[in-house]
Please model this.
Amino acid sequence: MSLLGRLNWDAVQHGWVIAGGQVTLVAVMLAVVGLLTYKKRWGWLWREWLTTVDPKRIGVMYIVFAMLMLLRGLADAAMMRAQQAVSVGPHHGFLDPNHYQQIFTAHGTIMIFFVAMGLMFGLINLVVPMQIGSRDVAFPFLNATSFWLYAMGGMLLNLSLVLGGFAATGWLAYPPLSELAYSPGPGVDYWIWGLQIAGVGSLMSGINFLVTIIKMRAPGMKLMKMPMFCWSVLGAMSLVVFAFPILTATLTMLALDRTLGMHFFTALNGGNPMMYVNLIWAWGHPEVYILVLPAFGVYSEIVPTFSRKPLFGYTSMVWAIWGIVLLSFLVWLHHFFTMGAGADVNAFFGVMTMAIAVPTGVKIFNWLFTMYRGRVRFTTPMLWFIGFVTTFTMGGVAGVIMAIPAADFELHNSLFLVAHFHTMIIGGVVFGYFAGLTYWFPKFFGFRLNERLGKYAFYCWFVGFLLAFIPLYILGMMGATRRLDHYDASLGWQWLFIVAAVGVALVLVGVGFQVLQLYYSIKNRHANLDKTGDPWLGRTLEWSTASPPPFYNFAHIPLASERDAYWEMKKHKGQVTPKYESITLPRNTIMPLTISLMAFMFGFGMIWHMYWLPILGFFGIVGSIIWRSTSDEHEYKLPAAKVRQIEEELEARYA
Amino acid sequence: MVGGIALLAIIVAGIVLSRSNIPILQPAGPVAQKERNLMITAFSLSMIVVIPVYLLLVWFSLKYRHTNKSARYDPAFSHSRWLEGVWWAVPLAIISVLAVITWRSSHELDPFKPLVSNQPPLNIQVVSMRWKWLFIYPTENVATINYVNFPVNRPVNFEITSDAPMNSFWIPQLGGQIYSMTGMSTNLNLMASKLGTYRGLSANISGDGFAGMHFSVVASTQQNYQKWLAYVRDSSNKLDKPAYDKLSRPSSNNPPAYYALADSGLYSEIVSKYAEPVFKAEN
Model:
């Protein structure tokens, strides 16, 4: 066995489309390294980011990584629609079938695991500890490890662009197509190990935030007084804790099939591919709700703030969340009514699926009635909310239609389905997280984003989204399936694909506005400073600190005896002479990054069959954990005098 | 201006679409027709909730915008048992109706269930291969690639398996799809009630040649069907095990091909090849 396993020079990817990706990848890396060196920021990078255990820093890193991944995923989407706009009849476009299939596989995988999950965990890290009036999460070290595992999983996956190519199986890699017999190359292994590493990180984050919300709320904050965002996160994290072990186990079995010649899911020798399909969706459907529940939570914060009213129907909202949590585990089979499970089974899962529309509908009415008799300000976050209600409702109708098994037989795997889940995920999840980012941006950076450019971005996204996906609903009903790299001219589909491509182009313009908005807002930040810490007249505790908050969040742990705790505080404002106490905080550590690098080595070695590397990585990880567990001094005390000094500086900053 | 252009575009698109072929909305058989009707029913029932949502969204957005000082401002109004009861109950009622429809239609349109007809069903066996569809007529002793022909108004019982990664067998104008899986045999009962040629295809990604995995479905008169059968039976192309093994080699975008069937047990051989949990040394 060679030291490099199956890795050799032939593995280096070539072709002009890929070269574009490779050049971009390398250029971005060189630019970052160059900039850091030029600005002499390496020490800063080490102290403030690479070794940090502060959830606010970790949240920002999640979001930066997710945004970079969003650009990659959008580039994939643009290539797919460009191919479909031209690959008709005698023309075959610019992508060969295998390359096209790699692109849509990468698009789906990246968008779900590294964009949506990244934005979600990013926002949760930023907001949850602040909203519950806590200085930290329950397990800060674990939290940093989760992030670095996520980032390393993403990097491993992107490495396939340079070395070896990616899976060409669709984003869930159904066997037997994803088994060795039909996909012998390293592509599926990249998929497995990229997700496995990131997935373990997600599971640990799930545990972490579950415990954080249960155990670390400010005194007086009973569960039923918690901000709704925290409720949604609690629901989502419960789902993570139950669903992600299924993913880990399923990926492990597929990896065993591929590396050790086992037969869990192979077509031959007693394997059962359909077991995989069941298992992956037993994770996959809850995953959808893991993504959307926190986005619902974001809307539940934004609508009250910008309507100057408390959230309507708080108790209903809580019940709706838990209804969704429960039901989301009872619907996985609707992803494959066409497997032939029989009428009783199909009907049961169909009914459970449409039942989810009830709590979801309740939430929408409650948001609308939060606006009722309010004073609604149409800031950018509110526009994203309006966009969400408009699109999500439409997608929900498509979902109810497809929940009927017999109707689904005619729509399954068609572009109608593709349009449906993009409506839910873009309209629900992406719009929600964009709204949340705009809303909480001033809290963590100390200045507001430019409103005008944000609105331009929204309009481009919204119109682009409609143009990109309404044609797909129609194409689906015309019998166009997903994942086609070519079709006949006589079908009359081309003009609809062209409209969809124009839609994607418009979305890209929207992204351009977002980049411009960020640049412009940073450049003119002095004009938009958030001096009060409460730029939107917020209702929850995160707005009670300075913007950006000190690294310990709160000098005094607040008392939260009412819902909308900060709103109540503002009403009964009493000046208390501050008495400062010392604060215990976790020390920075490079260990999470080193553990994750070793996980990266492990994955890389498994993909290329360099088996010494996983062994090294495995013992490295185990050794690090033992070392960490047996050493002390993970925390330090910030003396009261220092806290006072920081607080007084913050106070004096804009005085 | 922008609104005018958008309106014009929508009208043009509407005209083009009304002249287009939208198979799912233009069913050519009883199964597809019932499935389409189900979609319309579900869509209409959903509108009971959707239309109020859109109306309230527009109404509240306009009326309660903060610049409209004449609107009532009542920050204390944050819950109402009565109102919340309405929007728990109404969707629940709609879903209950849909649940009954779902239960009944799942049984009625179960793809395994033979269609009611005064004619005996025609049995056609279907194998998804890399990357083409093989149709075997076991009693008529013919077989075809990417082409299937049967008489109009006669129920057809497709038995479906795979000798390749999973595919999904779908003829949009005749009715819904079902997976083709290795080692398993699924059924799809369909019938054409109109003469014509329809498009059939695979709806599940199966590798390089996936986009070319479509086939022609011809619903012909009894006479023409018999003529076609006679023609194919006389074909010098024989499909037996060796010919099948040759056919199994991966190939993309295959034109239709016709064979006289020489091995009527071919289908069950393909299914049982995968179904046997026998461990053989892999070489």
Summary: Chain B touches chain A through 100 residues (CB under 8 Å). The radius of gyration of chain B is 26 Å. Chain B has two domains: 22-66+82-109, 122-275.
